[in-house]
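Q: Got a minute? One more chain.
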Amino acid sequence: MKQTDVLQGRTMLTNDCPKDMKIFLTGATGYIGKRLLPHLLEAGHEVFCAVRDRNRFSIPPGRVDRLHVIEMDVLDPKSLEAIPEDIDVVYYLIHSMTTSGGGFSELEARSAQNMVERLKHTRVRQVIYLSGIVNAEELSAHLSSRQQVEEILGTGSFGLTTLRAGIIIGSGSASFEIMRDLVEKLPVMITPRWLDTRSQPIAVRNVLQFLLGVLDRDDTFGQGYDIGGPDIMTYKEMLLRFASIRGLKRTIRTIPVMTPRLSSYWLYFVTATTYPLAVQLVNSMKVEVIGKPNDLAERLCIQLFTFDEAIRMAFVRIEQNEIVSSWKDAMANGQMEGPISSYIQVPVHGCFRDVRSMSVDDREKTLNRIWSLGGTTGWYYGNTLWKWRGYLDKLIGGVGLRRGRTHPTEIHAGDVLDFWRVLLADRQSGRLLLFAEMKLPGEAWLEFRLDEHNVLHQTATFRPKGV
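A: Always. Here it is, folded:
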């Protein structure tokens, strides 16, 4: 198979997929779900997307006829009644790795059990579950939870196909962004000893090929497969290869005295990850993640990308501004509790408000500048002060400024914008509403509104908690 054919693996797979199926996609706003959805639609399927918050889901243009959005919570059995009875296949892409505290394992188990109970009342033939590689004798809480979910889903009356992946490499993936932060910012790294742990990374494009390839294949029902790329590497080797690809010279020294807690803080302060995610990553990175050999890639005619190829493809996406999804857009990364809709109504009473207005000459140019805020563009006034605020936020356990933004000019509800969460991005009406996810003694909103008279209104609202 030629390299050019492999780079167009999406088209090849979707053309070979069965068509006109009813597919229920969970995790539609997640990193993998966002990338899988367009492939399913291109293959001619009718897709039902399960989301917790309809307001942060953007329907792809031209897909309204075959795309349905269902607002539900897998922890609420009553809401699962919205799942159609005549679905054929379910993609189960639900994970709680970024959840604060230690209760994510129980939440994942309840979610899986609720789903099994609901699917008993449907005609579903297959459930495809993306899990983690669990071959080590001692597993982290995160990997043990994935294994538990697989066991629960296996009790259903449908055919379960489990794909177990380790580190997923792609533009916007947590693993890729963390490695990029470390390599591009630190010429010399004093690191924990878990960097000597071996793993088997896989390109996100290969993950999508596997997810599409096993769709409605009877020979994969009731089976589990470890999926990984051709390279088995330590995390240290990955960082050094990453540096080499970027043309950077880096020195890495591992020390045995760095505890898991210190390792988590180190990862949290140096990279854009949140502290809860850093804790789970550190615990998982101490476990060797190497897949058991199988012939699934050969049966599905998938050519596996090397680690170097996966990194280079990720940067092609970044340079072309084609990052489809990012782990940073997960709601669990911030401070919001509940759906976006509960924050869109900005309070007026009991708040501090700063309102400024000015007339503008060029409406389109003004909207372009507003829609480019944050990320590499920064903030048009007091940018240094914004950076200091981000640094202080990170210092006290907040998200800081390192999350940046997924696309330099496009914004959608639910997106991350530095330490803000986008609540509303309506370019046609000229309104952008942001909610602060920085550490604050209260809640804060920042709104830009360009009215029909081309008057720009900027409103900052702060609702304090306590004295």
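A: The chain has two domains: 3-324, 334-464.
Q: Perfect, thanks.
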